[in-house]
Design a protein that fits this description.
By secondary structure, the protein is an alpha/beta fold. Helices cover 43% and strands 21% of the residues. It has a single domain, classed as Rossmann fold. It has a five-stranded parallel beta sheet with strand order 2-7-1-8-9, sandwiched between helices. A four-stranded mixed beta sheet has the order 4-3-6-5. Helix 1 packs across helix 7. The model has no long low-confidence stretch (mean pLDDT 93). It binds guanosine-5'-monophosphate (5GP). It comes from Arcanobacterium buesumense.
Length: 190
């Protein structure tokens, strides 16, 4: 059995809340943090790089990982594409003492709460519903239909925020980054 030296954290939050930007900031500021690159069956958006933003895999490759116990968790997100956390790289990073960030949807967060209850779970919330909607529509990377689907998922996620150990409101990137770094440092002091 692998000895896991590092800690893991789940970061969850609705679409367009700004998780990506905040996580980029915390990763730049704390070299011992390690971001788990998820596998997904969705197509890359312009600018997304395979192996950096996601491992873009076929449905067959995804099935294969699941069948061989290669996923720590996985879920169908926004009722359409599958996303999952490849188990091996996470275990290797933790064995090396890295503190691992798992960016998951609500379903994935719930699975990890069952399988790894010691993992601290953090929810990133928007300042308001109106702000979230404006950010999603302003981003303009999704079709109208996809935007509606993402907003429906976001409502469910926001309603579940009390399940989390911490809720951080993303009012400004600087504030949210500072709060997240504070949580990481509190939890990783031995
Ligand atoms: P997007 O398509 O915008 O990149 O991501 C959609 C959602 O999938 C995000 O809310 C993100 O948190 C979730 N997600 C990304 N990777 C994983 C994963 O490995 N597992 C689960 N359960 N959800 C994920």
């Amino acid at each position: 059995m692998t000895i896991l030296e590092g800690h893991a954290f789940v970061v969850c939050g609705p679409t367009a809340v700004g998780k990506g930007t905040i996580l980029q900031e915390v990763l730049a500021q704390d070299p011992n943090l390690w971001y788990s690159v998820s596998a997904t069956t969705r197509a890359p958006r312009p600018g997304e790089i395979d192996g950096v933003h996601y491992l873009f895999v076929s449905a067959e490759e995804f099935d294969d990982l699941v069948a061989h116990d290669g996923m720590l968790e996985w879920a169908v997100v926004h009722k359409i594409h599958r996303y999952g956390t490849p188990r091996k790289p996470v275990e290797e990073a933790m064995a090396q003492g890295k503190n691992v960030i798992l960016e998951l949807d609500l379903d994935g967060a719930r699975q990890v709460r069952q399988s790894m209850p010691q993992v601290r779970q953090i929810f990133i919330a928007p300042p308001s519903w109106e702000e979230l909607e404006a950010r999603l529509r302003g981003r303009g990377t999704e079709s109208e239909e996809e935007q509606e689907r993402r907003l429906a998922t976001a409502r469910t996620e926001l309603a579940a925020q009390d399940e989390f150990d911490d809720v951080i409101v993303n009012d400004t990137v600087a504030n949210a980054t500072a709060k997240l770094l504070q949580i990481f440092s509190q939890s990783t002091v031995n």
